[in-house]
Specification:
about 25% helix; globular; 4-stranded antiparallel beta sheet; alpha+beta; 2 helices
Length: about 90
Amino acid sequence: MSATRPAIQREYPRTVHLRDGSAVTLRLMTPADADRIVAFARSLPEDDLLFLRTDITDPEAVKQWMENLQAGRCTASSSSTTGATSSSSRRR
């Protein structure tokens, strides 16, 4: 017997407020985010990158990720506050 989870549909971009009162904007990533993702990844300590399946410090790897986004093979979100960005991805 297999149970399926209902899909959660959200409107993006959306702003959420954290407990400390700061606002975070969530939106779906687009290929226009590629340079920001590479810059963000290169700013991280090397140890923080060890568990990623893809080397997102490599512009070619990020380009392929963006092609997968456009083809609908994965979904990725980006979150930002003033001056900071992070991302998350899920394969379909």
